[in-house]
Every structure is written in structure tokens, then in C-alpha cells.
Design goal:
The protein contains 6 helices and 10 strands; from the N terminus they run αααβββββαβββββαα. The chain is α+β, with helices and mostly antiparallel strands. The chain has 2 domains: 101 residues, no CATH class; 83 residues, no CATH class. The strands form 3 sheets. The protein has a 6-stranded mixed β-sheet, with no helix packed on it. A two-stranded antiparallel sheet has the order 2-3. It has a two-stranded antiparallel sheet with strand order 9-10. α4 links the parallel β5 and β6.
Length: 231
């Protein structure tokens, strides 16, 4: 997908007399565009889920929350053993958002720091290994009781890999090389290709609407079929 996106971006840049993007600049914009779309999945999911709960969305193919959830499922991972350091557990290095924690096969309830302090004031409510809790800090996870130092696993959403359009130089021009060892395609859903193009063009200083990109892609595909029939 990344080569298709780059080709379309350059077509629009040439039409607008904006030259072309060096590979390094394109890769920087590609990273930012993918990250923005990826982060929008969470906001869109929460918004559409609320609408679904209010029974203002459809079902089947019109089940938008499910469609967004399927886009996020690509990034879902399980870490069966979080690393313990000093008094807390470290999230996986590639984690973007922790979904659930488990100990001995059971869920660990998340509580606020204030709630945890209230719980520990009484022996009746204090966390135990049978009923542990955890507090999420900015960078770490603290599990109570503190005797739990192993056996904690996590379900989480990982960060998307950094996209990289790789190339070889031929007659001074960069030519796409998808077999390079450091090649990395976009990881977000193919249905968001047009959004990627719009965002990258925006970073490059060209304002365009997504319907215009869709129309252009359709006309390009139609022309390709005509050329194939003539061959």
C-alpha cells in the first residue's frame, strides 16, 4: 500500500506544481499520517459505541463500532509475562494502550491511586493474591498486594510499526524496492488509504478532500483497465 500511496501523493503534488517529496520527507509524513489515523480509531470507536448504545446506528455492515474494532484487532497482542522492576511492572515496549491485566488466569481490577489507599485502610478490603488490584501510572503498572512480583500478563494494543518506503537509486532517481530489509508497509486498514493520502498531502501543503482522492483513484483504475484491453 505504501508505494500506491506515494505514487498518488506525487501525482497530486505534480498537478499542483509542488515538485516531489524526498523519500525521507515522505517517510516522516507517512509516519505522522498513520499515527493520526490510528489514534482516531479510539476516539471514533468510543463515539460510535455511545451512539450504538443509544440505538442510533445500524447492524451488519452498518455496525460501525464493530468495523472500527476490527481495525484495532490487527494491533491486539498478549504478553504472557510482564517484566517486574523494583516495585512495579513494565508495560510491553511496543504497547500503546493496556486493555486488561491478569494474574493466575483471572482479571486484575484497575483502581485509582486514591481508591487503592482507601482499600488498604481495612483488612477486610485490602487487596490479596486472590483479589488483586492495579494502579496505572504514566509509564508503569503497580500491582497490589506487593507480594505479586511474577505471573502478571497483559492484553494490549501495540503501536503500529513505523512505515518506510524503501528504494534503490537508478540514474539518480529513487525507485521503489519492496524487498529491502528495512521495508515496512502501512499497518492500518487498507480502507484508510485515501485518508493517508489526504493527510500526507496536507503535511506537504496541499489541501484536498477525500472524495477527490477517491474519484482520482477510480479514474486511474479505469484508465488502467482500458490500457490492458488495448494491449
Amino acid at each position: 500500500m505504501i508505494n500506491s500511496v506515494r505514487d498518488t501523493v506525487h501525482d497530486f503534488l505534480e498537478k499542483n506544481n509542488r515538485g516531489w517529496l524526498k523519500p525521507e520527507r515522505f517517510n516522516n509524513y507517512a509516519y505522522l499520517a498513520q499515527l493520526e489515523i490510528f489514534e482516531s480509531y479510539f476516539y471514533d470507536y468510543a463515539k460510535w459505541l455511545a451512539m450504538q448504545n443509544n440505538r442510533v446506528t445500524g447492524s451488519g455492515y452498518a455496525d460501525i463500532p464493530r468495523n472500527i474494532r476490527e481495525k484495532l484487532d490487527i494491533f491486539h497482542k498478549i504478553d504472557s509475562s510482564l517484566t517486574y522492576s523494583t516495585d512495579r511492572f513494565n508495560p510491553p515496549a511496543d504497547s500503546y494502550r493496556i486493555l486488561d491485566l491478569f494474574y493466575a488466569g483471572d482479571y486484575i481490577d484497575e483502581v485509582s491511586q486514591r481508591r487503592q489507599l482507601l482499600l488498604t485502610k481495612s483488612n477486610l478490603t485490602a487487596p490479596t493474591t486472590d483479589f488483586p488490584v492495579y494502579v496505572r501510572t504514566e509509564d508503569n503498572i503497580i500491582v497490589y498486594p506487593s507480594t505479586i512480583v511474577t505471573g502478571v500478563s497483559a492484553s494490549y494494543i501495540r503501536k503500529p510499526a513505523t512505515p518506510k518506503w524503501t528504494y534503490t537509486t537508478v540514474s539518480g532517481n529513487p525507485i521503489f524496492n519492496g524487498s529491502a530489509g528495512d521495508y515496512q508497509d502501512f499497518e492500518i486498514h487498507p480502507s484508510d488509504e485515501h485518508r493517508l493520502i489526504v493527510k500526507i498531502l496536507g503535511f506537504a501543503g496541499v489541501s484536498i478532500r477525500e472524495p477527490d482522492v477517491v474519484q482520482y483513484a477510480e479514474s486511474k483504475q479505469a484508465q488502467k483497465k482500458i490500457n490492458e484491453n488495448r494491449a
